[in-house]
Amino acid sequence: MRKPSVLCIMCLTLFLASTVRAQTAPGVNNAALKGDYAFTFNGMTTGGGNNSTPFAAVGRFTSDGAGNLTNGELDTNGVGAMEKLIAQSFNGTYSIGAANRGVMNLNIPGGGTLAFAMMANGNAKFVEIDAAGGHGTVGSGTMEKVDTTAYSTAKITGDYAFGVAGFDQSNNRTAIAGRFTANGAGTLTNGAADINLAGMFSTWNVFAGDYMLTDGATGRGILNLPPVAGGTPTNLNFVFYVVNAGKLFAMEMDAVTPLTPLLNGAVLQQQTPILGFSNASLNGGMVMYGSGVGGADAGLLQADGIGTLTLFQDASCFGEGGGTGTYNVASNGRTAVRIGSAYAAAYLVSSNQAFYIVPDPCVSFGFGEPQAAGPLTNSAVMGRYAGSMAIPTYVNDFIFSGEFTADGASPTGNISGTEDIGTASGALLGVAANATYSISSTYPNGRGTVSGNIAGIIYVISPSKFVVVSSSGAYPTLLIFEQ
User: Fold this and answer.
1) Side-chain half-sphere of 404: how many Cα atoms within 13 Å?
2) What share of the chain is helix, strand, coil (3-state, %, to 5)?
3) Which of 308, 394, 434, 483 might form a disulfide with 464, Cβ 3.0–4.6 angstroms?
4) pLDDT tens per residue, range 364-411
5) Which domains does the chain carry?
């Protein structure tokens, strides 16, 4: 998704020919991708070596189910002048093979070639695969079906929680988690947020902002938030694309600076109880997963509904740990968590579902989801899954999407699949992956180990979703698998 050199164009031509060969029965499953979609992408651009700068994109398209993309529009942002596109229209093509893996080509300045893996609900996980020779953009994202009837400012109304993260031009990381109330007429009120700006943590107790859907045909809009730091900087300006009335993909669109880093994430409608959130809104298990500088984390939080919790965590910033602590949920969903001297803030979307942020030097940030009830063992991971690396933080991360099958066998389960890998030196397509896994229902419930091509610690959210903190690369990375 950037302007290529002549060498890159030659490499891309050869690469596209090999892409067709890497698919099994190209095009036979094109009907799996049909309708209107929004997408979000987090990546990095490199001009050689280990150095990189952040890059992100959000947008939408219409797929006809027969291999053609129309009505496409996207916004991109990065450090280089050629990396910024504003409401860029595009069309394209795609082909989905027998194994539900596909390749998509976007006709945009600089080109964009994506490998993607379909999920059962018609959504997809993807990686960019057109970098070559140490030059280009690598990263990952998701495509989700949209509700076009929500293309209206008036449909964006009620309470929302949000989470965004990213880097500035020097790869200093920033994350923000928060909430606001949208009035359906373009005004944001009752805002609250916590910010970790490259290790400097602060809280917005109350803020206001504004938003507007600017294009009713594409679901594109803009959203304005206060500046990350005090003084004279301009506010943070985001572009968003509507997924539905309860979900927006949002990306910071200003020039990338230390005070306006390139942030990307999501806005989700809060399911606020009639009397507001309370400590009872955390009750049971919640799997938490995210990333930070130089790694990833996942863990299981167990809350009792009255203010006491236990946490078991595998985190690159802290290592394996956790303990017993307390929490306090405000009526707007902001939650303060304390375990000994450690502290974290979270913003509830609904019961046991939240964005979280930690005031640590790694700028740890992520999302928590309710864990399915009951003991979770190997049998909870069974069937077909689409998997990908989420939120890459390092240009040499192992960035992939693919299709996988788990057999649920006990005491040792087996996973087999096929991966498409995007690297700065060139794509690796149709790579076989095999792993074994063992999951325990004892504390922490649903945690286990994975060995093989996929190696690390697994946390089961439900039989349809699990996450892995992978130890396969130079740094721990977060992998997400969904049926």
Assistant:
1) 34
2) 5, 60, 35
3) 483
4) 999 999 999 989 999 999 999 999 998 777 777 779 999 999 999 999
5) 6-145 (2.40.160), 149-269 (2.40.128.120), 279-370 (2.40.128.120)
